[in-house]
Amino acid sequence: MSFDTIVVVDWSGASSPSPVKPSKDAIWIGVARRGTAEVETSYHRTRHDATETLAMLFEAERAAGRRVLAGFDFPFGYPRGFAEAVSGEADPLTLWRALSDRIEDAPDNANNRFAVAAGLNDVFPGIGPFWGCPDNLGDPRLPSKGTLRHGHGMTERRACDRTKGAQPVWKLFTTGSVGSQALLGIARLQALRHRFGPDLAVRPFERHDAPITLVELFPSLIAPTVEALAEENEIKDRAQVRILAAALAQLAPRQLDAMTREGDAEEGWILGLGHETLLESAARAAFATPDPLEDMPKTDLMPPRLRDDCFAMPQGVSWVPVDDALAKLHDALHPVTGLEILPTARTAGRVLAADVTAKRSNPPMPNSAVDGYGFAHGATGTGVQRLPLVAGRAAAGQPYPHAVPPGHAIRILTGAILPEGVDTVVLEEDTNTDATTVVFDGPAKPRANTRKDGEDVAAGAPALPKGRRLRAPDLALASALGIGELPVHRPLRVGVVSTGDEIVAAPDRPAAPHQIWDANRPMLLALASGWHCEAVDLGHVPDDPEQIAARLDEGARKADVILTSGGASAGDEDHVSALLRQRGTLSSWRIALKPGRPLALAMWEGTPVFGLPGNPVAALVCALIFARPALSLMAGAGWTVPQGFTVPAAFSKRKKPGRREYLRARLTEDGHAEVFASEGSGRISGLSWADGLVELPDEAVEVTPGTPVRYIPYASFGLI
Ligand code: AMP
Ligand code: MG
């Protein structure tokens, strides 16, 4: 589910209206629209005013069909056991009802929270757990200091309150009195629950998708970033709601939705706890416009999710030619990974997420391409040239600080900036010198042996394109152009699971005669890592629908795409395809390809699943031909077509029309393609014997020794 409008509320437990002039420690509301950095902020003197404003906003957004995520900076729950002790049930929302029945909170902020807390303390033995009150309260049930409490039996903090700076929920008075904010806040939110009914869900307690979702926030989670991004003299509370709302609006919808569901169903949870780095980079991305992110549309930060029916094949299609299947895959997929900014030196193998332009020209100044002597061309002519040498020299990193007079020369070394008065260099080997004069044959070519500034790349010119999978030379270029950080895609997470009752997970485990060791999983995991993806090992599961389903659920949580092997056909024992058909959105593609029976493509919980054949030979070919370009596209690096070479065959083969074939092959010493002796699809040794594949076209072919064939080395498929 995605949220269109993000609301962040900085709450207050004050007992009287806040000052007329917008000030700190009052209620501030920030409203952001997804994918923009525009945040509207408003200041509210009372809880009554703030809640009315929120209710109107919720009404308007609901009417417009925009989903709202509203976050509040007070605890939604209490340490385990409290709800049951107060309301008789462990359900936190039953507690909300019980608390709001007790709280009175007038339009001018006058309220009875201390009396309510004192009453709640009565439910517990000893003294506490609530504490903190003004000196004049004088209720013996509510101690003025935390240390005066004893024997109440409640833990001090919720699991999520162990984060830095979080205050215990029991504290009602002075600094960070979240206890008061929670009692008064929960009562207000309970009123909103009443008003909006099933259209409002409180996470993580309620799981249903509703037009309005409420969550607990803690702006201090990203305190340093808020401080860094705050405007000059901006009131802290305003900066917090503004920046946090903008950050949340930048997150990928699926990621944000998943975050709202995290945490403890009784105690509640702080949204984004454990994801601080992500929130901080989202906040910076929302406001920072330094290059190289400058020209990048902000929406790139939140790739849209894939449609559930994206793999659907037109009705009535039986055998799909390989190229049609590839075209269909190409259209169905798009990049799904978020981005991060990394130091250039750490980006090898990553995918560039934005076009990058040169910060400075390379070279920055005209310089010498050789060791030799520099002079002004205009003062030289034909025949023997004798130029007196100036004292000193120009070397790389040691510029000559004076002008060289016309008719004079200077000793100059490779990489040295051309001193003023020098535009041409003669190569040392073409000269003679006695240390005071240099002699050479004219005429010299104007600007010979020099490099113009910007002749490689001019400042501001395109340097590296978005989508480039960064290689060592790209790092050299970016560094030379002064680009110290690059926006890159997060690595695509590829989950790999093997299925089959006969499969034993790893060769260090014993296998009965009817069992075989898992060959596909190590192969597919290594492929994924070699493709610079994050390989996520999802293990092996027997042919049991429930177990396969549970593993796919795990995969959908941990990975951006899942590769399964085995059980992908349409037979009795083909449990993966049966399950995907039943529970996912399956398109079984019968591809006119050998080796490789049907390829199952499906969406499981929004995550694409490639159901590869169990046969290792077919699994590899299908992975190389279909999964590789698809994963590349999803990773942001665009569709890839493996580079093949036409070489003479060293074999004979007659092939019928109607399907494409890939043969395990390698090059002979004289550059001919030889193929593995057996085409049997169970022959794993042939996969290892080969260095690549020979691709035979869909049409009929008759190959005899010497016939040109297309050979695609494993390296062209990115195999390591
Ligand atoms: P399936 O696609 O499940 O019908 O499997 C086809 C063939 O591949 C069968 O002979 C399986 O035993 C074999 N197979 C399936 N998965 C694996 C695996 N992970 N490693 C090795 N062989 C496998
Ligand atoms: Mg099987």
Automatic annotation (TrEMBL):
InterPro entries: MoaB/Mog-like_dom_sf, MoaB/Mog_dom, MoCF_biosynth_CS, MoeA-like, MoeA_C_domain_IV, MoeA_C_domain_IV_sf, MoeA_linker/N, MoeA_linker/N_sf. PROSITE patterns: MOCF_BIOSYNTHESIS_2. Belongs to the MoeA family. One of its GO terms (molecular function) is metal ion binding. Its EC number is 2.10.1.1. GO terms for biological process: Mo-molybdopterin cofactor biosynthetic process. The keyword Isomerase does not apply. Residues 495-633 form the MoaB/Mog domain. Pathway: Cofactor biosynthesis; molybdopterin biosynthesis. Keywords: Magnesium, Metal-binding, Molybdenum, Molybdenum cofactor biosynthesis, Transferase. Pfam families: MoCF_biosynth, MoeA_C, MoeA_N. It comes from Salipiger bermudensis (strain DSM 26914 / JCM 13377 / KCTC 12554 / HTCC2601) (Pelagibaca bermudensis). CDD domains: MoeA. Catalyzes the insertion of molybdate into adenylated molybdopterin with the concomitant release of AMP. It catalyses: adenylyl-molybdopterin + molybdate = Mo-molybdopterin + AMP + H(+). Its cofactor is Mg(2+). The lineage of its organism: Bacteria, Pseudomonadati, Pseudomonadota, Alphaproteobacteria, Rhodobacterales. GO terms for cellular component: cytosol. This is Molybdopterin molybdenumtransferase.
